[in-house]
Write a structure and sequence with these properties.
Blueprint lengths: L8 E6 L6 H14 L3 E4 L4 H4 L9 H12 L3 E5 L7 H6 L26 H18 L5 E5 L14 H15 L2 H8 L26 H29 L5 E2 L1 E2 L10 H4 L7 E3 L9 H15 L5 E5 L18 H11 L2 E6 L25 H16 L11 E4 L2 H7 L11 H14 L4 E4 L18
Parallel strand pairs: 1-2, 1-9, 2-3, 3-4, 4-5, 6-7, 7-8, 8-9, 10-11
Length: 460
């Protein structure tokens, strides 16, 4: 195969390591019946692929990929580096993140690693290299998926390793301590520094800290995680050239932790996750905004919806299920706004763990359920639409969205806490949506840094 589906792709995350191998063939059977054409495999499988330092076990993954290849289901193969296994954190406790209060976090959930840790980078790259060497010629491999939802939990990390890396980052940005003092306005409150070692991460302070320092630390955190992504991506490009590499963004206006205008230039395919927040009064408008923003990050090119939910999630205060028909509507709204791949989290509902109450394409109650019937209906619709990969959306209006500005507006000590840049953007977008206008949400010119600059002259 070695190619992505040529028409609208349909599928989701598949986590076979959660199940006995006797279940795998049943999964493949139900996938084919549902019209699934791709799955993402191995996102959280590090502890299964490397149960001990340097000892790799690929036999189970060989069998899974062979089954998927036999069913002509394309695989977006993950590097499994989103969460290190318990042995890693036990062996290298210095890689665990530290919060603003100086508390080092323990392992036991996910993303328990410092974004500046070279120890983590070396181990993640080593696993990625082993995966690339083993599966670069596998007939199911169609895309590579690096890590998962960068920045969702571990930023800002304020450990000593990050402090030293931050000083180095600042020295490249400003050159001298004098220029740093000028940019940060350190004459206020006697914050002038005289050597780099005096600069600290945004740790707990008696009152409001220097806002420019905090904005720079936001930029630094985004760049540190991007360098982690690029380290794995470069290995994949070197060992399996021609296989596109992606990682899943979270391009909702509520997520402002990373500068995706910078990140978009570094991925081969822009992909995103989007989860409806049912408590929001205009969650459908939020879905449209997120899709238009993802298309803008992709420079107008088609993009991939890596994850969304068939029904309820598990992490909101009250997790409402989607009413009949919303599964189809949500998915096709993304398609109408440029997505040419529709993915869900996840294929089969987990029986244990933090997301055991998260909906899935194949629910706990099995295939004879409304959710699975709607999944099969969507799969049939995707097949009937026959949309060719590469379809684009044309718009007359551009709305500029700047991640740096959104981060700056979110800092404290502004004239009013009632001003929310994200809500202002959403209100403008909603007003145009209500008038039947299609809107490209794009980065301002000069903010892409290496990617496709938006051509504002083509908008009326």
């Amino acid at each position: 195969m070695r190619s992505w589906p040529s028409t609208l792709a349909f599928g989701g995350d598949y986590n076979p390591e959660q199940w006995d191998p006797s279940i795998w063939r049943e999964d493949i059977l139900f996938m084919r019946r549902a019209g699934v054409t791709f799955v993402t495999v191995g996102v959280f499988a590090w502890s299964w692929l490397e149960p001990e330092p340097g000892r790799y076990e690929f036999g189970w993954l060989d069998e899974v990929l062979d089954l998927l290849a036999g069913a002509e289901i394309a695989v977006d193969l993950a590097t499994a580096t989103a969460s290190p296994p318990p042995w890693f954190s036990a062996k290298y406790p210095q890689t665990l993140p530290v919060d603003r209060q100086g508390v080092r976090h323990y392992p036991g959930s996910r993303q328990a690693w410092c974004p500046s840790s070279r120890v983590f980078t070396d181990h993640a790259v080593a696993l990625t290299e082993q995966l690339a060497l083993r599966y670069r010629d596998h007939p199911a491999l169609a895309r590579w998926h690096v890590s998962n939802e960068y920045g969702c939990h571990a930023l800002p990390c304020c450990c000593d390793v990050c402090a030293e890396a931050f000083r180095e980052w600042l020295s490249h940005r400003y050159g001298t301590v004098e220029e740093l003092n000028r940019a940060w306005g350190t004459a206020f409150w006697s914050q002038r520094v005289t050597e780099w070692s005096q600069v600290l991460p945004p740790r707990a302070t008696p009152t409001i800290p220097n806002p420019t320092r905090d904005l720079d630390y936001w930029r630094f955190g985004s760049d540190q995680l991007l360098s982690q992504f690029c380290a794995e991506r470069d290995v994949l490009h070197r060992i399996s050239p021609g296989v596109p590499v992606t990682t899943n963004f979270m391009s909702d206006e509520l997520f402002r932790t990373l500068d995706y205008a910078r990140w978009a230039a570094e991925v081969d395919v822009v992909s995103t996750d989007h989860y409806v927040v049912q408590a929001r009064p205009d969650h459908q408008g939020g879905l449209s905004f997120a899709a238009d923003l993802t298309r803008g990050l992709a420079g107008g090119a088609p993009w991939m919806l890596m994850e969304h939910a068939p029904s309820a999630v598990n992490w909101q205060p009250v997790n409402r299920g989607k009413p009949a028909g919303q599964l189809l509507r949500d998915a096709l709204t993304h398609v109408a706004r440029g997505a040419d791949s529709i993915g869900y989290f996840q294929w089969r509902a987990s029986v244990a763990g933090a997301e055991k109450f998260h909906s899935a394409m194949l629910p706990h109650a099995g295939p004879d359920t409304r959710i699975h019937r709607e999944v099969c209906e969507l799969g049939a619709v995707c097949g009937r639409l026959g949309l060719p990969r590469g379809s684009v959306v044309e718009s007359d209006v551009a709305l500029l969205w700047d991640y740096e500005a959104a981060a700056a507006v979110g800092l404290p000590a502004h004239p009013s806490t009632e001003i929310d840049g994200a809500q202002m953007a959403r209100d403008l977008h909603r007003a145009m949506l209500d008038r039947g206008l299609t809107v490209d949400v794009v980065p301002p010119p000069g903010r892409v840094r290496g990617g496709v600059e938006p051509d504002l002259s083509r908008y009326s």
